[in-house]
Amino acid sequence: RAIGFNDFLVYTNDCSDGTDTLLELLQSKGILQHRNNPYRKMGLKPQHAALQSAEHEDLIKDATWITCIDVDEYLNIKCGDGTLDALFEAVPSANLISMTWRLFGNSDIHLFNAGPVIEQFSRCAAEFARKPHQAWGFKTLFRNMGIFRKLGVHRPKGLNAQLWQEINWVNGSGNALPREMYRNAWRSTSTTYGYGLVQLNHYAVRSAESFLVKRNRGRVNHMDRDQGLAYWFRMNNNYAEDRSITRMIPKMCEELDKLLSDPEILAAHTHSVERHRMKIVELKAMPKYKQFYEELTDERMEKLSRLHK
Question: Does pTM surpass 0.90?
Answer without folding.
Answer: yes
